[in-house]
Design a protein that fits this description.
Order of helices and strands: HEEEHEEE
Distance between the termini: 30 Å
Strand order of the largest sheet: 1-2-3-4-5-6
Shape: globular
Strand content: 35-45%
Helix content: 10-25%
Length: 152
């Protein structure tokens, strides 16, 4: 990633974190990384654990920033979430969701759009190739990497 894009992404993530904090979220982690991918933000929203993907752009001529969260990207996010839960077992029993924050820099200011519950990971099995993040749960309760497009 170029230095310009990297600084745009970091600034967009900082703006997204500030927005979520204003909405009452508690930021638990920023740029969590594991071999399966990276989570831009991990937050707590009341009793829910929220994995947040931030998409920062300077223009929308190629589509909205959220459109860049492809099926492959959602799969990587789900695997990274499994790693996070393996590393932080106290959060395993919390209901979890995936949000997207679009951060667009235009005319000298940020425009932010929060997409709550942007996609789902359905609880039907073990993620293919991912670590056993939910190992404490019986097999019938383990979550699978199956993802679906946005629901909200």
């Amino acid at each position: 990633m170029s230095e310009r894009r990297s600084s745009l992404a970091a600034a967009g993530e900082a703006q997204a974190a500030a927005l979520l904090e204003r909405l009452g979220y508690r930021i638990l982690a920023r740029r969590y990384r594991c071999r399966w991918g990276e989570l831009d933000l991990v937050a707590q929203d009341q009793d829910a654990l929220v994995f947040v993907e931030v998409k920062a752009r300077t223009a929308v001529r190629y589509g909205s920033p959220a459109e860049a969260v492809t099926a492959r990207k959602r799969e990587c996010l789900a695997r990274a979430a499994a790693c996070f839960l393996a590393d932080h077992p106290r959060w395993r029993d919390y209901p979890a969701r995936f949000d997207v924050v679009e951060a667009t820099w235009s005319r000298g200011r940020w425009q932010l759009r929060h997409l709550r519950d942007a996609f789902r990971v359905w609880p039907t099995g073990e993620p293919r190739g991912a670590p056993r993040a939910w190992g404490a749960h019986p097999p019938e309760e383990r979550r699978q990497l199956t993802v679906s497009p946005g629901v909200g």
